[in-house]
Design a protein that fits this description.
Number of strands: 16
Shape: globular
Radius of gyration: 21 Å
Distance between the termini: 21 Å
Bound molecules: zinc ion
Strand content: 15-25%
Mean pLDDT: 96
Low-confidence stretches: none
Length: about 425
């Protein structure tokens, strides 16, 4: 455990506002080289250029990069075991790989061990907060919350709802699902840094009755989150059209059920139209853009600029196991590539903002996470600019801060991560012998 007070020296980078599209010289970027970050009782209390007085224990990371912990707004904890599954698109990928992996999480020991491996893997990649799908099993959510609590992490999660179009062992029913949700909400929502998300897998796997129940939960408690998938794949969109012929669009299925609100996190949103984007804006909901997954499953290219132009919030997510890497730097570089295919250029600032303060704002958690503002909980990562000679040479020739950060995003992996603190407590430290 770390001491109550600690002062960390390094090059601090965070954001004071949302950077504009294409702006490589953004006033929203706050870079404070060779500063001290002062942490007391888990919270950031000051950032200063001068060394603190002798009463402060110190950690000197001069020259290293300090970032707020990354926030991943969409990831599936039980899907670590199916990363890199060959040869399928969304619907047959679910059937062939994902559902069998998720069925194992009915077992409490499997769920507990899986949650520990998953959360430690996030921390070893600089992700300190996440919005997570466990499985349909109540115990999978319970053990995930417990493991996050033990690590002091900010986690938003909930038992997955699916009462149709899923195999045996992975279906609930409306009444049992409602009881499970209410139990989990009572136990975990607002406990420490945990919050409950009403978790609809996606429209095809819930009956209209289950969607109505989920919407009622949200209506009864507006502090609950809602997470689901929307408009990821064209076959899926067609299927939703057949299952819900009265809905104007896929997104409209959720809106009609009362599932579209300020605390809704919808993964993908590739095949949306202008009316959908306006509905997202009006509801204050966000899209969890999952570029690695979208490329890997061949789902499509998300139009980030159209979403932003419509006023809809966009955050970044790895979506493992459709995504191929839990790392948020890997997610950022895939996001850049997706935008490049559409002739757009995603700056390092837009990418980093979306994975820190932007996600925090969209989740209504910016009073707690996403920046180095005094009063925030100290979720802080220390990064090396380079972990081997290729990166070192690239950093040495960077002519601007943006060029340096962009190249860093392109090259950085978990071997660049020196340490991860969650609410001031060190939860990951790179072994001296190298990354295991
Ligand atoms: Zn997903």
């Amino acid at each position: 455990m770390s001491p109550q007070r600690i002062a960390i020296r390094g090059n601090l980078l965070d954001f004071t506002a949302e950077p504009a599209w294409g702006d490589t010289e953004s006033g929203a970027v706050r870079f404070r080289p060779d500063h001290w970050l002062l942490i007391d009782a888990g919270r950031i209390v000051a950032v200063q250029a001068d060394a603190p007085d002798a009463g402060w224990p110190r950690e000197d990371h001069a020259g290293r990069l300090l970032l707020p912990g990354f926030i991943d707004t969409h990831v599936h904890s039980p899907q670590l075991d199916v990363i890199g599954s060959y040869g399928t698109a969304l619907l047959d990928w679910l059937e062939t790989f994902t559902f069998p992996a998720e069925r194992r999480y009915a077992d409490a020991d499997v769920a507990e061990q899986g949650a520990a491996v998953f959360l430690d893997a996030l921390l070893a990649r600089g992700t300190t907060a996440a919005v997570v799908f466990p499985t349909v099993h109540k115990v999978s959510a319970d053990r995930l919350f417990g493991a996050a609590q033990a690590r002091g992490m900010r986690l938003v999660a909930g038992k997955v709802l699916m009462d149709r179009h899923a195999p045996d062992g992975l279906r609930d029913d409306v009444a049992q699902a409602e009881r499970d949700c209410l139990d989990l909400i009572a136990r975990w929502h607002g406990t420490d840094r945990l919050a409950y998300a009403v978790t609809v897998r996606f429209a095809p796997t819930s009956t209209p009755e289950q969607l109505a129940m989920a919407g009622a939960l949200c209506r009864d408690d507006p502090t609950l989150y809602m997470q689901t998938h929307v408009a990821e794949n064209r076959d899926e969109v067609r299927w939703v059209g057949e299952l819900f012929p009265q809905a104007r669009s896929y997104l409209d299925v959720y809106a009609a059920a009362g599932l579209l609100h300020r605390r809704s996190v919808l993964a993908h949103g590739i095949w949306l139209d202008d009316a959908d984007r306006a509905a997202l804006r009006d509801a204050g909901a966000q899209i969890a853009h999952s570029p690695s997954s979208n490329l890997f499953l061949g789902s499509g290219l998300f139009d980030w600029r159209a979403a932003e132009a419509a006023g809809a919030a966009v955050s970044l997510a790895c979506d493992v196991g459709g995504g191929t890497d839990l790392s948020m730097t890997a997610t950022m570089r895939d996001a850049y590539k997706v935008q490049a295919l559409a002739g757009q250029r995603l700056t390092a600032w837009k990418a980093l903002y979306a994975a820190t303060r932007g996600a925090a704002v969209a989740l209504e958690l910016d009073h707690e996470i996403g920046s180095f503002e005094p009063g925030r909980l100290a979720d802080v990562c220390v990064w090396d600019w380079a972990s081997e000679p290729v990166g070192a040479r690239r950093m040495a020739v960077a002519r601007s801060l943006h060029e340096k950060l962009f190249a860093w995003i392109t090259l950085a992996d978990r071997s660049n991560l020196v340490s991860t603190r969650v609410a001031g407590v060190e939860r990951y430290r790179r072994p001296v012998t190298g990354v295991p």
